[in-house]
Amino acid sequence: MPGTEGGTSQDGIFHEGTAFHSFLEFDLDAGVDAGALGVAIARIRAEAAAGAPAETVQVVFGFGAALLGRVAATSVPAAFHDFAAIAGADGRTAPATQSDVFVWVHSWSPGRNFDVVRAAGVALGPLGTVARETAGWVYRDSRDLTGFIDGTENPDVAEAREVAVVGAGRVGAGGSFVLVQRWVHDLEAFGALPIDAQESVIGRTKSDSIERDPLPPTSHVARVVNEDEHGAEIEIYRRSVPYGGAAEAGLQFLAFSDDLAKFELMLARMFGTTGDGLHDRLTEFSRPATGAFYFAPPTETMDRFVGP
Ligand code: HEM
Q: What is the distance in A from the centroid of ligand 1 to the CA of 111?
């Protein structure tokens, strides 16, 4: 069956260790010509690959449900759909801000990232508008701005490929579903909590990220750790980084999965819209300002679309 034969994930998804990140989301004008989009993406890829190897920039592309069929006609997973807003019972919400094209740029050089971001603006500008852009960076020893280590239980790259890439035999094989959300922290409110209370919110110790025992059921870790019907943990691969400055700061959440439903389950448990109805106490101190689902097709599909 076409679209199920597998492929190679876009390199940048699993390229770890880069410190500087940029996240772009574009809305395309109605009726944009797919050929013109392919030419624009080729230009962005060329800028990312330019220069000496040390100057190479990782760039990953994702497409919204409305556009994916034009990029990868035979590889659109049946279950793929736009992000839907979530309304928690307690009034907390996760808004939907779905766009068409997601571009994730990361490297060791903010300057080189800028070159690629600029190339994206120039190449995609005539086809639509920049809906959102955020620059993020690794903070201290990979901590979230709350001071907690983010990534402790993230799968290593080998395992990540198993949890984050659609397997051969399924439509979209070699690609990944992507969740992109900008979370805005209330750092003052969180920082005002005693350390013990902060640790109860996250579910891990602050200094060295040891899981709290017993784990409070409303802690972040308790809400996002779930098991499937075989008792196996339902895992995703996270690549979030902090962003911000004096006026606003938070986490640019980014994660990859072989199944969109994994994201939806975790978010539903965070916002208390499923099961026991409890909410994640982290949502009392951070709120998502954006939310979108994309699909990052495999490299072979990208090459076919963009041309040699
Ligand atoms: C304000 C936003 C968020 C912050 C600050 C945050 C922070 C953290 C921290 C500090 C940990 C513990 C260390 C680790 O294992 O990485 C963690 C774990 C985790 N988070 Fe989040 N997170 C946020 C949003 C989300 C969202 C939206 C999801 C899913 C849709 C998610 C999924 C996970 C998962 C799966 C784990 C691993 C749990 C485990 O296996 O122990 N997080 N997060």
A: 29
